[in-house]
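Researcher: Sequence recovery benchmark, item below. Answer with residues only.
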């Protein structure tokens, strides 16, 4: 039985990935940072149904000694590095913390793999934010990176660290440059989940308005469950490489809002307030993937479209709030 180690296992992607790997016969290990003020039910809400099927360890991904101990004991066949400070807005407020968490953890894991088990395959979770200032859309593997936030800068640094370990040391290391991917498990701090859950609250009379930033911001939104399948396929291919993962379609925040409120039979214009407080200091204009490489080489295809994704999220939030 193959062993896999997942950082960020309690997050959206980590939970879907753990499910996928369990279905494929893996023995799954994960690391989680203990937070004293957060209850276990809240912290593990995405993986509560998996707790008897996985091995969960506490630790900090910026602690080299902890990672060394875990990799030594587990001796994983595959490592998926998903943990990060992943909020772009927060990265402007906590620049150094973001850089430390996101870059040190990647370097530590790759260094430990090289020392302990160089045959272990490694996946790094890149992001479309690395293309933030790109002049043209869509973006593919040949598009120059143009990071415009501390978060994006930290991810670009980790991307090149991953590539260096692949080229210099022969580690089977892949980077997935994933465009925005959402689900009912998305954190409430992200704009898509903020939209669907607040709209559901408005439908139930629990809220009166939804305050948002730039409605003209464009993103390529897909379903997280589809994207973790892409991660896994990268490590199953005969050769390591880097892949852009997305739908190839871009939509504005306004479109996301319109479809969300329409699903609830509400007129979004009556409830949505544009608030400059939620504008980013810098914001990408049009992030849209060209996923030709992963479609051609790995035969990956997204199965959930934009409309289906929004319906899935809205219905989930509505049912959760009714309970």
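Model:
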């Amino acid at each position: 039985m193959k062993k896999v180690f997942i950082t960020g296992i309690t997050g959206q992607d980590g939970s879907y990935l753990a499910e996928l790997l369990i279905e494929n016969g893996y023995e799954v290990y994960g690391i989680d940072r203990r937070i004293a003020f957060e209850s276990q039910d809240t912290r593990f809400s995405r993986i509560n149904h998996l707790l008897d099927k996985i091995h969960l360890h506490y630790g900090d991904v910026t602690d080299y000694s902890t990672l060394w101990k875990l990799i030594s004991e587990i001796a994983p066949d595959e490592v998926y590095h998903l943990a990060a400070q992943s909020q772009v807005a927060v990265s402007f407020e906590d620049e150094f913390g973001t850089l430390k968490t996101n870059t040190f953890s990647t370097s530590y894991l790759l260094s430990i793999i090289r020392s302990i088990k160089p045959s272990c395959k490694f996946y790094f979770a890149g992001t479309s934010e690395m293309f933030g200032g790109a002049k043209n859309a869509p973006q593919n593997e040949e598009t120059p990176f143009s990071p415009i936030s501390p978060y994006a800068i930290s991810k670009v640094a980790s991307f090149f660290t991953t590539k260096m370990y692949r080229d210099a040391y022969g580690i089977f290391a892949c980077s997935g440059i994933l465009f925005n991917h959402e689900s009912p498990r998305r954190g409430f701090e992200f704009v898509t989940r903020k939209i669907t859950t607040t709209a559901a609250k408005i439908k139930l009379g629990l809220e009166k308005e939804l305050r948002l930033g730039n409605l003209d911001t464009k993103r390529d939104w897909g379903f997280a469950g589809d994207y973790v399948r892409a991660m896994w396929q990268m490590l199953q291919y005969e050769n390591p490489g880097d892949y852009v993962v997305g739908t190839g379609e871009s939509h504005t925040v306004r479109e996301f809002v319109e479809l969300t409120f329409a699903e609830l039979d509400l007129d979004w214009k009556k409830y949505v307030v544009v608030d400059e407080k939620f504008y980013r200091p810098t914001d990408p204009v049009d992030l849209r993937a060209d996923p030709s490489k992963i479609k051609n080489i790995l035969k990956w295809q997204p199965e959930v479209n934009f409309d289906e994704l929004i319906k899935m999220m809205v219905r989930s939030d509505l049912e959760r709030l009714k309970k």
